[in-house]
Amino acid sequence: MDSKNIFKYRLIANFDWIIFWLTIGVSVVGVVALYSSGWGVNHESNYIYIKQIYWIFYGLAGMMLILYVDYHSLERFAYIFYIAIIVTLVAVTLYGKAVSGARRWFSFALFTFQPSEIAKIIIIITLARYFDDKKIKGPYRIRDLIPPAVIVLIPAILIAKQPDLGTAAILFFIFLSMSFFIGINARSLFILIILSLVSLPIFWHFMKDYQRNRILTLLNPHIDPLGSGYHTIQSEIAIGSGGYIGKGLMSGTQNQLNFLPEKHTDFIFSVFAEEMGFIGALFLIILYIIIIVKGIDVIHCARNRSGSLIAAGAVSMLTFHIIFNIGMTIGLFPIVGIPLPFMSYGGSSLVTNFMVIGLLLNIKMRRFKDMG
If you average pLDDT over residues 69-90, what whole number do you get? Predict the structure, then answer.
């Protein structure tokens, strides 16, 4: 067997089928939940869940593209990708399609594309490139973190102006997670925490009224039960009414009677929990936990710094999405429009999540190249 065939064999042998099939499994559950979300009883719903199936195939194509290219090559072009996404975010702010007061999308024929989703992957790769290039001895100090913070701050501001605070927050969470992975000086970490607490009143001052109301109703949704607290109250009712075994597919009252808002996107977990109950919701969460644990395994099995960094960013992104979306539906976090990976309806987010899984599989497949 020649060296080229040996290389291909070792790639296939190191492919993590568990991560792959778990991702497919959760995506299928998402399609079923979308069909059963109440949109499945009319033509519009059929279009939504069928379109989600198409997006799954597009996501698989994106994942295969990521798998085909060695992640080292992606890292080499990181800064070019970064400049391209900044230009794209500026363009969408000026010329993008506006929906419900938010200008986040480009529209091409029958498809819409949200650049801020792809920005997550590019930030992961760019930060990995930066941290990999900067061989600083010892833990990072605040002044060492200023350049990567600026790298994140520029797209985060552009995304927040769309407005999309949820995605902007994810970029900073990715930055913090990768910074912790690299290692932060204890004194610098303490200063960062103090600065974050001191800056809260400043962020509050610049928030829009509806954003402030979301935080206030998080503490007590019943102060505005028909306004900003409505989403949280209805979601909690839906999840609680599911009991242990749920009401069954197409039988959730909060869902079918349209009490539950944004049920095919932000609150798809509420739909699923009402109809599948505590046992079904727990099973779904376990599937997510296994994906995250397998992702952490990729971090540890990567045989170079860049692979570990990219995997750490990918895992942190998926973890934040899962925890924040589920926490949002049960009233632990404010509602900021963060989708549940592979479950919520949305082409750009679904394709991006598949590509992130592709990054993890890519790193796992090519670990032997760095083993010597």
Answer: 93
